[in-house]
Structures are given as C-alpha cells and as structure tokens.
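Reminder to self: tokens first, then the designed residues, so the page reads top to bottom the way the pipeline ran.
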C-alpha cells in the first residue's frame, strides 16, 4: 500500500499554512461561535495548543469540532502558543494563578512541571483499561516516578528518511550502518544533488538530530554512576569520532548543501521536498511535510532507524497534553483526550501529518506497513530513554557549539573538544554539588 497524504477538506485547509514548517498565527483561539461561548450550561475546556501555531492547526480544530458535535454539552477552546514558548507561558500563568485546563507539553518540560506541582495524576485520570493499550515506551516517557504526568496523543520517532527510488539506482539493498550511510550519501551527491539534508544550526532542531547521530556511536551524553554523580561521554573518544564524522559530511565529503550552519529544519526539509537531497535524519512528521510540499514523491520514500556505528538510536518525541490540577472538568477533559487517540482519528491524523499513534491497535493498521513508515515504526524499539539531567539544554548547547564552530569557523577537532571538556567539567561540577 502506498503512503498517501489524504486530501484535507476545504474547511480545514483554510486554517493551514502553505510553507512546509511555517507557523500559523500565535496566541489565537480556535473556538465555536459566540453563542456557544455565552452558554453557561456548557462544560468549557480550555487547551493551550502548540499545534494551533503549526500546519496541523486545521486538523486539530476539525477533531475538536467533531467532538463537540458528538458532545453538544462541551465547548472546547484551543489557544495557540508555539512550543518553544510554552514552558515560559505556563510558568507565567502559574504565577498569576491562571493556568488553562490543559497545555501541550514536551517531554523535557515534564520534570519541571511536575516539580511545580501543577500536573494532574494522568494514571488515575485516564484509567488502567485505557493505559493497557499504550506502548510501554510511551508510558515510560510520559511518566515521572511511575506516575503519568501527561496524556500522550502521538509520537514522532527519529529515523532516517531516504529516496527509495535513488537507492534502487545503486547496488545497495539498504542502509544499516554508518559506513553504508556515508557511502550512500556520497553516491547520492551527483548531477546537482546532494546526499544529505543536514540541519547544521546550533539550536534544538540541529542538536536533536546530532544527538541521535552521536548516540548511534554508543555515546551517553550525561548519565549517573552508581554513587549518583553525573558523568559524561562527551569528553571521550566515541564522541570525538562521531563529531569528526558528522562534520566531515559537510567539510570533507561535501555531501551537504552549502551554508550548512544556517540550514535549519525548514531549509533542510525543503531541500528534500525539492528533490535536491535524498537522506535526512528527522522525525516521522517530516513525511507529512515533505509530501504536502511535493505530492510527486508519493511512493518514492522509505525510512530506516538511524544507522548504527555501535547501536541504532531514536528519540520517541511523545506529543500530547498535560492536564492541570486546576481543571474543573477532568472527566470531560480525559474523554476528549481519549477521543484524539481513537483508532480512526489517530490513523487519519498520522496519514495527514506523519505523527504516529500511541496505541498498539492503531499502529497495527495496514497503512503503516508502507516503506515510508517502516523505519520509524522500527525506531520505537531503539529508543534511548529521555535524559533527566536538570540542565540538559546546556549540554545540547555545548554539543551544538562544537559542530557549528567546526563547520562555520574552521575550528579544529582538538580545539572543539577542549571547549567541550572545559564546559562539561564546569557544568557537572556545579550539578554534582547539589
């Protein structure tokens, strides 16, 4: 069965953006007509949604509208807040005691929000019967100390998407190892094409991909030893080799489009959609973005887990909502969140966006046997658990500086490693004093 992006109805398309990753408006509420808003007899649910600032805004609103049609006593208001602003917004609203009923949450913010004491017990909220249908890895990433602190809606596992038709033109059967990945990237670089859509910016988009690349070399960015002290592999030979290999793709092998340090996710995805590149480390949601931008690529894409040097590696990237303790209608909220993960809803949402279902029943649908999904489904079995280091964002900044300065400023590997060692030593020393 070919991967097909379903045509979205005109009523939905109106609210969507044309660019691959361009955001729709910020802070705008998507809700029903004013008459409903004025009806005091209705149960009102307010959700701060990151999707309302993205291309999936219309799809989410359509699902909310469908739920309200089936449940006329419920009014749902979706307020758009970009994900990179969500944590600051939540903290500010908590200070003013004005939290919404639920908000989109990233896995790295769960420990912070849990420490703030604002999250409901989602294990109790959703119920054991519902949780039995979720994948264990999803429950683990959504939990703190054995208690679920969010309601998972979808996952965006990391993998390698590639041009299956280009690979057929080579004498290779697949992409399993890092050596094969590098060789195929060189073979794809021809006739005005480049092999690899690298995201080389020093930001979360760039470092999140580099993080999976180095983990494939067996690197543990930060970990605790038996005594509970934080340690790192970023000062060792495995990271040094991974860093050099990553930079060489752009500087030595020249399999990456020029201007890589300024190439963010939108640009890298656009290169792929415009058929200028044939390999990209990314989340499964890129499938929807790429095919929306270039429907002619339907049937020409495939995916595999991130190639291994020592192991495969993936981030699960669970997306969903966290219900706050201030929610006055938790049962109705839980019912709506379960509605989003219903098989029919979840499969269609995945086909439209590349954001995969969290429940096993939906994942077993025939649609996900397509080669475009294959590697991302497999990647779920290679997830490296979410790092709980309190200052993990600083670790990412250190990693991003290393590859970005090597590719942008010509910094040597030894100088880059010296900077990594100095910054990590200071960071770990400070944290281990806590």
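Designed residues (434 positions):
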């Amino acid at each position: 069965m070919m991967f097909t992006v379903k045509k979205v109805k005109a009523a939905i398309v109106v609210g969507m953006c044309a660019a691959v990753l361009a955001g729709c408006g910020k802070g705008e509420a998507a809700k029903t007509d004013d008459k409903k808003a004025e009806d005091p007899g209705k149960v009102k649910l307010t959700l701060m949604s990151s999707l309302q600032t993205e291309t999936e805004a219309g799809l989410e609103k359509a699902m909310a509208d469908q739920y309200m049609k089936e449940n006329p006593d419920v009014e749902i208001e979706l307020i758009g807040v970009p994900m990179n602003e969500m944590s600051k917004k939540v903290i500010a609203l908590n200070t003013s005691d004005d939290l919404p009923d639920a908000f989109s949450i990233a896995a790295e913010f769960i420990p912070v929000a849990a420490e703030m004491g604002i999250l409901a017990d989602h294990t109790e909220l959703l119920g054991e019967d519902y949780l039995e249908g979720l994948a264990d890895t999803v429950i683990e990433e959504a939990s703190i100390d054995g208690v679920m602190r969010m309601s998972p809606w979808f996952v965006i596992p990391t993998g390698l998407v590639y041009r299956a038709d280009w690979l057929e033109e080579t004498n290779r059967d697949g992409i399993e190892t890092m050596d094969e990945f590098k060789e195929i990237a060189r073979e794809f670089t021809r006739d005005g094409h480049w092999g690899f859509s690298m995201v080389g910016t020093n930001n979360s988009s760039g470092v999140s991909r580099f993080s999976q690349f180095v983990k494939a070399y067996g690197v543990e960015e930060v970990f605790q030893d038996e005594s509970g002290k934080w340690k790192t592999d970023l000062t060792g030979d495995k990271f040094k080799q991974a860093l050099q290999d990553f930079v060489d793709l752009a500087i030595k092998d020249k399999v990456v489009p020029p201007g890589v340090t300024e190439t963010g996710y939108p640009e890298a995805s656009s290169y792929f959609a415009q058929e200028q590149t044939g390999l990209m480390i990314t989340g499964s949601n890129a499938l929807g973005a790429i095919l929306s931008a270039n429907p002619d690529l339907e049937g020409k894409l495939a995916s595999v887990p991130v190639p291994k040097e020592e192991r495969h590696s993936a981030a699960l990237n669970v997306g969903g909502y966290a219900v706050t303790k201030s929610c006055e209608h938790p049962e109705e909220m839980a019912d709506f969140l379960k509605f989003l993960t219903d098989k029919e809803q979840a499969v269609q949402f995945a086909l439209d966006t590349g954001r995969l279902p969290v429940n096993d029943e939906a994942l077993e649908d025939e649609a996900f046997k397509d080669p475009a999904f294959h590697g991302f489904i497999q990647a779920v079995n290679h997830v490296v658990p979410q790092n709980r280091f309190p200052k993990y964002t600083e670790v990412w900044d250190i990693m991003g500086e290393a590859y970005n300065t090597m590719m942008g400023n010509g910094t040597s590997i030894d100088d880059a490693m010296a900077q990594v060692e100095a910054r990590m030593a200071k960071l770990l020393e400070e944290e281990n004093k806590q």
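Residues 158-313+389-432 form a domain with the D-Maltodextrin-Binding Protein; domain 2 fold (CATH 3.40.190.10).
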